[in-house]
Amino acid sequence: MQELKDIIDASDNIVFFGGAGVSTESGIPDFRSDNGIFKTKYKYPAETILSYSFFTKQTKDFYDFYRDRMIFLEAKPNNAHKFLAKLEHMGKLKAIITQNIDGLHQMAGSQNVVELHGSVHRNYCSKCKTSYEIQSIIDTTEVPYCNCGGTIRPDVVLYEEKLDNNTIEKAINYISKADVLIIGGTSLVVYPAAGFINYYKKDKLILINKTPTDIDYKANFVFHGSIGEILKD
Q1: Which of 81, 117, 121, 224 does the annotation list as catalytic?
Q2: What are phi and psi of 68, to 5 degrees?
Q3: What is the bridge-based pairing of β-strands 93-98 and 14-18?
Q4: Under 8 Å CB-to-CB from 90, ≥6 apart: which residues?
Q5: CATH number of domain containing 110
Q6: Range of the domain at 168
Q7: How many CA within 13 A on the CB side of residue 133?
Q8: What is the reported pTM?
Q9: Residue 102 near residue 76 (C-beta atoms within 8 A)
Q10: Can 121 be counted among the known catalytic residues?
Q11: What digits encode the pLDDT tens for the residues 115-160?
Q12: CA-based diameter of the chain, in Å?
């Protein structure tokens, strides 16, 4: 722990790469744990519901699931979000690269957040591209429609969709230039995002996750436990 503190104290070029485990301590379920979204019983598997083809063909069922399991407006930033925001304000953290779509990093005060999979807080008409706030989704129990008649959809990357190229380039650029890379709250099984960490070539790779990952052996420091508590300490 002291070595980790020394590394952070000495660097002004830190990048954080995070996943669902960063937000579970705020009450947002992850996907693959025993209580995760993929273990929830619905009429269809969660992977199927969260696909682009399902969204276009069974939009009402998609939104029933999406409102119930993907939007958590009552969630608040936890110690991990707050610590990272503090590092950025101190000029040490250059970017947060997140697979999460909950917006908690921004709520904690972080400014430079690269959202690989989009955000529930951004929505747009699939026809005319008009932007909508999240209220357009949660204020109805039906399929939300734009004034032009098009379906409003969340600005999130669904299964069968590709990540935005500009977002990919930005993430890889930050990682490849980082002095310190902290990976937290992710099992590193979601690709292509998990593959981005291979662009880090320095020797200060820090991994914080509740369970072991397939790249633990590559990390210079490995912490198994609560990311919020470890960063708070």
Answers
A1: 117
A2: -80, -35
A3: parallel
A4: none
A5: 3.40.50.1220
A6: 1-28+77-117+162-233
A7: 3
A8: 0.92
A9: no
A10: no
A11: 999 999 999 999 999 999 999 999 999 999 999 999 999 999 999 9
A12: 58
